[in-house]
Amino acid sequence: MSSSLLSDGILKFATQYSIYTGCITFSFGVIAYHNVRHIVRRQLPVVRRKLDKQITAMVLMRVIAYVCLVSPYNIYRIYAVNFPTSRSVPMAYAVGRLIQSILLSINNINFVINFYLFIIFSSRFRRQVKLVLVKKCWQRWKYWCCHINNRIEPDNNIEAHNSQMESEGNL
Prior knowledge:
Blueprint: H1 3-39, H2 46-82, H3 90-109, H4 113-121, H5 123-145, H6 158-170
Keywords: Membrane, Transmembrane, Transmembrane helix
Protein name: G-protein coupled receptors family 1 profile domain-containing protein
Transmembrane segments: 17-36, 57-79, 99-121
């Protein structure tokens, strides 16, 4: 199997996968939007309503971030498949690879942005992160690295100590 057929197969799979994940993300976005519209009408305690709004805002922001970060690369890949640039034109090929690298980097931000989005939009998530990092991890690290032994230990060199006292007494 030639590398050209293999790369075409991988590209086809990646395109189908991105369409599939885009549809799923869009579906969850629509569900989250529907949920926001109905939160106000439900007879729930205020705390529960607030938590529902937070989780819904988190899902909506996640969907928006996904669309903004993944769509440019997918659009470029569709363009690159339909209008390929030849290696015989080095400048156009290099520009295409540069654009692909930049858009792929933006696409990869999609995988690391969740933590920051959740920190921004959820006070409950911020409290949990603070609890885990400050109360648990920091205390463990402090115990392991800065453990000071405050216990008094017995002197095991009694004979050396006694001989030192005898030599001082002979003076």
